[in-house]
Every structure is written in structure tokens, then in C-alpha cells.
Design a protein that fits this description.
This protein has two domains: 58 residues, Roll (Structural Genomics Hypothetical 15.5 Kd Protein In mrcA-pckA Intergenic Region, Chain A); 196 residues, Pseudouridine synthase (2-Layer Sandwich), CATH 3.30.2350. About 5% of the residues have low confidence. Helix 1 packs across helix 2 and helix 3 packs across helix 6. The relative contact order is 0.17. The protein is α+β, with helices and mostly antiparallel strands and 259 residues long.
């Protein structure tokens, strides 16, 4: 077998549904991963088909069936799998469809609503949220007072706020207080930060699309499996996804996509 074509240890673990790519890096660094009985701490280690991998002594195998789900998140629900405040989690709504571990592809903050994608493929999750993948996310935003077009123009041109550059790919003004915004980088609370900069009070942020998947008529609090066409479109995006290695680790902060 050509080892140069085998997946790196973090990608192998992520594709097995152990954790996100970042968390898998941390597992490796902490000495909790063994390959063929030996502790592995080198991120460049590649895993072949005949290798035996364990995490904390438990065998690890890549997921046989890849699962992709769309979920209509209600307000007040947290995206993360763990919450020390006991709030309702998005994954709690998905157990009737899939009982295994799932990762959210991007996030929405607690007040925000709309489309969330989930998968058991941690590697795909990493690629689809990496800023270099430039996957489009579309949001409907509503405010208390009219939205000046020049503010949206500034957002589309790129605006720097407290050292961070925010740029919308495009926008559409529906009414005086309602617009659609398309983003691609997944920066933390990007829309809220930009609108707060312009002193615009946001009353609603609702995601209607992530890449090729639209929320459509999916009821609030309900989930569905992606269609064959959507899965194929997702696979194309994964194949074009973010780079590997050190550049990925420098870009970890972009995983915290909360609108």
C-alpha cells in the first residue's frame, strides 16, 4: 500500500466519528491514541487499511454508512453537543432518525433559527466549515428599524471591526427592515457584529441555505435525511474542501460559526 495516499491520523479518527478534526488532534497530542499497540503523537502519521487504531483502549473503525441530516433549529436550542446549563440541544431532536454521534456542520447561536446540517463524518464536517472552502450560507435578517443600503454595501465591500474583516458575498434588500445576506467564511457572530457596529438592532436571524441544501418547507424542530442529489452535491464540496495540515490548525477559530 502507498502510505502517502493513506489518511492522516486526525482525518481517520474524524471519519470514524470519534470527534471533530480539532478534537482528534487533541486526542493524539494527549497520547490517548494507539496504532498497532504503540502510542502515536505525530499528527503526520498515516493509517493504512490493516492498521489497528484504538482511542483509550477502544477500537476505532471508519463509519460504514455516512449520514447527512438537515434540521430546522428553533430559537433557544444550542448547537453544541455538550451544554453545562442543561438547555435543549439540537442533537436531541435527531435521535429518532440516527442514534450515533453527529457533528454539526457550522453553528447557529441560541437565538438564531433555521437550517443546520449534521453528519457522522467528522472529516467532511471539517472540510465544509473551513474558510478556504467558501461554502455559501444564506440568512434572512430582520431588524427593528430600516436597514440603510449603504450599510449593506459596506458589508459587501468588506468592513474591519475590532481587527476582524467581515465581508458578505452578496445581499438582497426585501423590505426596509428585512434582507437576505450570503456569507462564506463562517466567522463567529458575523452578522450580529456587523449590524451592532451600525447600531442596528437585530430581531431575527434565520438561515435558509447551507451550500446546496435549502431549508424549504421543513417544519420547525423537524429533521430529514438529505436527498441523493443533496448528498452528491455535498460530496463534491467535500472533495473541493479546505486544505490539510498546518494551515487547517491555524484556522481553527473559524469553526465557531454562530450568527
Amino acid at each position: 500500500m502507498d502510505r502517502s495516499k493513506a489518511p492522516r491520523i486526525n482525518r481517520y479518527l474524524a471519519s470514524a466519528g470519534v470527534a471533530s478534526r480539532r478534537a482528534c488532534d487533541e486526542l493524539v497530542e494527549s497520547g490517548r491514541v494507539r496504532v498497532n499497540g504503540a502510542v502515536v503523537t505525530d499528527h503526520s502519521t498515516r493509517i493504512g487499511a490493516s492498521d489497528e487504531v484504538t482511542v483509550d483502549g477502544e477500537p476505532v473503525r471508519p463509519a460504514r454508512t455516512l449520514v447527512y441530516l438537515a434540521f430546522h433549529k428553533p430559537a433557544g436550542v444550542v448547537t453544541t453537543n455538550a451544554d453545562d446549563r442543561g438547555r435543549k440541544r439540537a442533537v436531541d431532536f435527531l435521535k429518532s432518525l440516527y442514534g450515533g454521534r453527529l457533528f454539526s456542520i457550522g453553528r447557529l447561536d441560541v437565538p438564531s433559527t433555521g437550517l443546520l446540517l449534521f453528519t457522522n463524518d467528522g472529516d467532511a464536517c471539517h472540510r465544509l466549515t473551513h474558510p478556504s472552502a467558501q461554502v455559501e450560507r444564506e440568512y434572512v435578517v430582520e431588524t427593528k428599524r430600516p436597514i440603510p443600503k449603504e450599510h449593506l454595501d459596506a458589508f459587501a465591500a468588506g468592513i474591519r471591526i475590532q481587527g476582524s474583516l467581515y465581508r458578505a458575498r452578496r445581499y438582497r434588500l426585501h423590505t426596509a427592515r428585512r434582507c437576505s445576506i450570503v456569507l462564506t467564511e463562517g466567522k463567529n457572530r458575523e452578522i450580529r457584529n456587523v449590524f451592532a457596529h451600525f447600531k442596528l438592532s437585530v430581531t431575527r436571524i434565520h438561515r435558509v441555505r447551507y451550500g446546496p441544501v435549502s431549508i424549504g418547507r421543513l417544519p420547525v424542530g423537524q429533521a430529514r435525511f438529505l436527498t441523493d442529489r443533496e448528498r452528491n452535491d455535498i460530496r463534491v464540496l467535500v472533495q473541493k474542501g479546505g486544505p490539510h495540515g498546518r494551515r487547517d490548525r491555524r484556522s481553527r477559530g473559524h469553526r465557531k460559526e454562530q450568527r
